[in-house]
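Case study B.
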Amino acid sequence: MEILELTALELAKKIKAGEVTVRQAVDAALEKAEAAEPVINSYVTLDREDAYAQADEIQKKIDAGELDSPLAGVPVAIKDNMCIKDQLTTCSSKILSNFKPTYTAEAVENLKKAGVVILGKTNMDEFAMGSTTETSYYGPTKNPHNTAHVPGGSSGGSCAAVAAGECFGALGSDTGGSIRQPSSYCGVVGMKPTYGTVSRYGLVAYGSSLDQIGPIAKDVSDCAAFLEAIASHDPKDSTSIAREDYRFTEALVSDVKGLKIGIPKDYMGDGLDPEVKEAVMNAAKVLEEQGAVVEMFDLGLVKYAIPAYYTIADAEASSNLERFDGVKYGYRSSDYEGLHNMYKKTRSEGFGAEVKRRIMLGSFVLSSGYYDAYYLKALRTKALIKQEFDKAFETYDIILGPAAPTTAPELGKSLSDPLKMYLGDIYTISVNLAGLPGMSVPVGKDSKGLPVGMQLIGNAFEEKTLIRAAYTYECATGKQYEKMADLDGAAAQSQAADGKEAR
Amino acid sequence: MAKQYETVIGLEVHIELATKTKIFCGCSTEFGSAPNTHTCPVCTGMPGSLPVLNKQVVEYAMALGLATNCRITQVCKFDRKNYFYPDNPQNYQISQLYLPIARDGYVEIDTSAGPKKVRIHEMHMEEDAGKLVHDEWDDTSLVDYNRSGVPLVEIVSEPDMRSADEVIAYLEKLRMIAQYLGVSDCKLQEGSMRADVNLSVREVGAEEFGTRTEMKNLNSFKAIVHAIDGERQRQIELLEEGKEVIQETRRWDDNKEHSYAMRSKEDAQDYRYFPEPDLVPIVISDEWIAKIRAQQPELRTEKLERYKKEFDIPQYDAELITESKRVADLFEKAVELCGKPKKVSNWIMGEMFRLMKDKSMEPEDLVLSPEHLAKLIDMTDAGTISASVARKVFEHIFTDDVDPEKYVEENGLKTVNDEGAIWEAVEKVIADNPQAVADYKGGKEKAFGALMGQSMRALKGKADAGAVREMLMEILKA
Amino acid sequence: MANKISDETIEYVGILAKLELSDEEKEAAKADMEKMLDYIDTLNELDTTGIEPMSHVFPVNNVFREDVVTNGDGRADTLANAPQRKDDTFEVPRTIG
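Model:
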């Protein structure tokens, strides 16, 4: 039996049955990580010792019958923007390169209660700002399917780790597509839940009104199980919503008969890679064959989502990142004269280019004289976009489309033209503006062997509808996550090409 | 002839609310603890921490708004005010700009020209900053976040005041209201009440306001008066010299009695306010307002009228007693315990106010408990102690809140009721003072007073003066 | 219609954001910002008259805490990551006044 072949739920079942020990599961993942990390660079921090300590403790609880969770004993990874007590939490930034929080994020706390083993913290775009995981202070993560390509971002480390078998599931965060787009690029299942479903307490904020933590998994069942484990109403997060129903795994039913699915015409138009289009349309056909009603419709305002998003997200980010100032934690410049110079040196040395770019824009759109023209205009646009979705969901149960216009781009090709990079977020971003749940499901590969993801968007609080449709698709096609290409060959090439940056 | 100038003043008053916990976290607001004791990830701006609003803050702010005749904003929100400073851990302060909790109110103050309304523009909730202490030796500043996140209400007045006296009257009025509501203790020296002064001058009769300056860092009534006088003078001098007043923020240095401009390239004063995404709106129903209104404690005017009616206390006394909630509470509680309003009032109006004046104390500094005052009155009435002993004991209650019963016991101050002992003491005084006895018998009434005094002294003041007088008369007549 | 960002504006935003940019970075920031603002200006094609700015996407209101002390002495945790501390305080370059 190949442990790494198992999904999280399958693994937990075997652990529960005593066929696999938690240590063996951790061994398998760590062995894989050992081999993959020099090339893939999914992790910022891997704590082997701590992983084994957790494994032993969880094993004891399982043996004593004290842990009855469907995920007990499963090794997972956490994106490095979620705080874990006494563990390095860097947001892949120099400015937090030495930061060890004294508290744990609520979502991680919930996952721990479910009995998982946390292997480490995964790489990301610095402060989740980026779409390629190339803006990390700790070097880029590579796409396990083709290491000359990016894994997407910002949760690129988490998605690559799942795709490469370096863990059995991971948490990511999604502010404008940061779970769905890398899930699509890496061929894994990722979901951004409805805003307020998973507590943001302990998630280092980027765009507070848009940020949401979500699961990244090998298949739809795992995704539902992880979501069920992390979702909760948290009194520590004022925007957390008390939902009536957290039993997401109940939606793992293969049945879409009568489900109305709408495909926005604007999602299938200019700028969409024909291979991606074909894969997504084929997937839609599968659902149609299973009894869903699929039609094209006009969503409207699609092109306005990106400018509205960057205005809002950057404004919030400029404020959220003010706290990194060298006073209370994190990096402080060693050479400064006086208070304000200390601030400036610390922040200029501590933040990377993309973060500075967004802070500058965000500060500008909030500054005196521009607030109304830019920030309020963006908030009004957001209201209109929400209305468009409300209208669409009067007719459809699900909106279907691609997660990204292309498959994963090559490394080093995106950052030089930020605006072009931002345009890649076109299908994911409006979902965050409207607070809706969205999911990326692997639906095939392009001719280069890079995975394609289909995005399913649901009305607010309708995760179960998405899970049901995704599960139906999975059952009909027999597909799981896209199995990774032969890493060893790729590893040799890539290692020769560029050495991994020092941690 | 010299031009006549009028001063135009508006105030921004910060009042620290008397909640048990901070505005956005469960840390204590206790004053005077060791640095950074009352801190957590939320009030120190740790990454990933999130604020959750203390309901009591909203209710206290509503109470203040209602008591100052404001309109409550029924959908109100928090905004972020962005500026970098080490006492501001997130480098933004959670405050209210666009939809503050209350608007358009007023309070009435007494001025030499009669009662006057000072209008309140708006009132908002916000978090306090931490404390900075300067280390002269190392040329650094040290940050303590104990005060960071303590709830504040900022009350912004219209520019309706015309003199330092009016400003003080306004501040005292706000302080009294806050104290009566129990929403703040308003201790200036602990910084729980602070004021920024916006001031401009204009020629008497002018329609337009002059250019105003804002003075910060004013934390005593004295500093406020001095700062107003100084700034008025400074602006008049500028105008007289034909120069312009620059709209700016100035910092008052109470030690140097001088204000200086806080001008720095790094202080752009562009706060980039925007709605706080981490907090949801507050929706205040009519029912909630009605509930707060119904809970509103008796304010001063009602109290004053009740004292006059219920306790038969004269207007003047009732005014003085109700001037501070602290004193009024003391009075009421003591009356409740001993049932003698006249006597309680006499002690407060007499001895207590005298001692407070001697020691230049504020009502907030009082330590004496109503229980001990009531007991003292009861003991005096029962004849357990004499009036002169009572005055002495009161001083100790006033300074240390001693239990009068214990104190009298321990110091042997009980009234001597033993007739034999009094007789003996009086006889001894007569025997020792033949001259005075002779003078009295010779018709010098004054000499009686001397003998009386000697007798009381001999009895250490513990005897009832009436009894001593009677016995003295009797012996002298014999 | 194209946005023009002046040197003064970049300087000013740098002060607000406490970022010190090299001359090169400033030029890049100007170009980036101009491009982004031109793009953001496409929002002006939309008629948003009468539309309320939407800061919170769901109508959740009145989330409160009760006024009960839940936290104890936080000194050790608060200061655990301090870049520079003195006794139980954070030490920073001297502030003015």
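The longest strand of chain A covers residues 438-445. The remaining cases will be described in the next quarterly update.
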